[in-house]
Structures are given as C-alpha cells and as structure tokens.
Write a structure and sequence with these properties.
By secondary structure, the protein is an alpha/beta fold. The protein has two domains: 109 residues, Rossmann fold, CATH 3.40.50; 87 residues, no CATH class. 56% of the residues lie in helices and 13% in strands. The N and C termini lie far apart (63 Å).
Length: 215
C-alpha cells in the first residue's frame, strides 16, 4: 500500500526541528511495520489553525491519486487544530484514504465528538449536492420550456459531452436571459449540457454583449 507521511510542528524553534525529525523517524518505522511503500514525506512548520499551508495543500493533492491509500501522522493534532482539523479529516476521509497514527499504533480512531461532527458535515455536503442537481434540472427544464433546444444550438455533444468548452453560446445566454432566467440558472443549464461556465462568466459575457450592441 502506498502512503504519505505528514509531519508538522508549529514554530521554527530548534527544539521543534528535533520534533520534526523524531516524527519522521517514528512514522517511517510505522510505515515499514505495516508494509507500506512511502511515496512522499511532508515536513511542515506552521500553525495547526492555518489551512493555508504548502504541506497540507500538497497532501490533499497527493491523496487524490488513486494509488495513495494511507496517510501517516503522529496524531490528529498534527493535521490541524480546531475547525481546521475537522476540515482536513473530512477531506482526507472523503478521498478514501486511511489515516494511521503513532498515538494509536495503527489506524486512527476518531473521537466520538469529532465523528459526530464529520457525519454532520457529510450530510450537509450531500444535501448541497442534491440542491445543486435540483437547481440544474429546474434551470434546464425552464430553459427548454422557453424554447431552448440543446440538440440544435449546442455543438460537440456525444463523445465530447461534459468536456470543457471555450466557445460559449452567447445567443443562447441572451435568449434565456430575455426569457426570464437568472444568470445562475443560465449557468446551471449550460453546465448541464457540458459547458464549464460560472454565473460570473455568464454575467460578464451578457454584459459584454449588451455593451457592444449599445455602441
């Protein structure tokens, strides 16, 4: 099993450097005892309350790779403190990676209170996804009821459906806007047909169009 080792201390003091070296040594032994293949060792000196950390961002990028199955830490506080810890635990577990710690001499056992918070966060995310999908479906239905014909107006469907497209159908944006759709609904509708576009982009393109036609 491929694994990433993450070590963190909060300051750059010399004593903390010793702690970093000790964490790396102990986690390397833990990895070898479990038969893990160490892919990367991340050493970081930063506050656990801060999410804007190079090491954390590298860790989150690495665990998106399907071959990375485990993250080794001294204990959960090395990931972060307070809300930052919960956020990072959620991100790692959501990617399907397992956490191993020295403090548990094996797989990390999340506390009952943290487990409850993580369950709540997971439920909230699930309902956010459902609401987003509902919004897209309603926007698409409303657009079609107002004359939007994706099979006629949108190009490159079929094999290329869902890929990013640079060409945004400005005429469709204008027509859907005239039919009463909000910029958010227009963006959701176009995303449903494979256009990687945000509400802000829809608004900007529409504004550019109206400015050009007024001059």
């Amino acid at each position: 099993m491929n694994a990433v080792i993450y070590c963190r201390v909060s300051t750059t003091k010399e004593a903390q450097e010793t702690s970093l070296a000790r964490q790396e040594e102990e986690l390397t032994r833990l990895a070898h005892s479990r038969g893990f293949q160490i892919v990367e060792i991340i050493r970081e000196q930063a506050s656990g309350y801060d999410l804007d950390r190079d090491g954390v961002l590298e860790l989150l990028s690495l665990i998106k790779q399907p071959e990375i199955k485990a993250v080794l830490i001294q204990d959960e506080t090395r990931l972060g403190r307070g809300n930052a810890k919960i956020a990072l635990l959620h991100c790692i577990l959501k990617e399907g990676a397992k956490l191993y710690s020295i403090s548990h001499n094996g797989e990390l056992q999340v506390s009952e209170s943290d487990s409850m918070v993580l369950q709540i966060v997971g439920m909230v995310e699930e309902y956010q996804r459902k609401l987003h999908n509902i919004k897209i479906k309603r926007g698409m239905r409303r657009a079609i009821e107002n004359g939007f014909r994706p099979q006629r107006n949108l190009k490159n469907l079929g094999d290329n459906s869902g890929r990013d497209r640079k060409d945004i159908p400005i005429q469709e944006i204008v027509r859907l806007r005239k039919n009463g759709l909000t910029f958010a609904e227009i963006a959701a509708t176009l995303r449903g047909f494979g256009y990687d576009i945000s509400k802000a982009t829809v608004h900007r393109r529409y504004q550019e169009y109206t400015d050009a036609t007024e001059t």
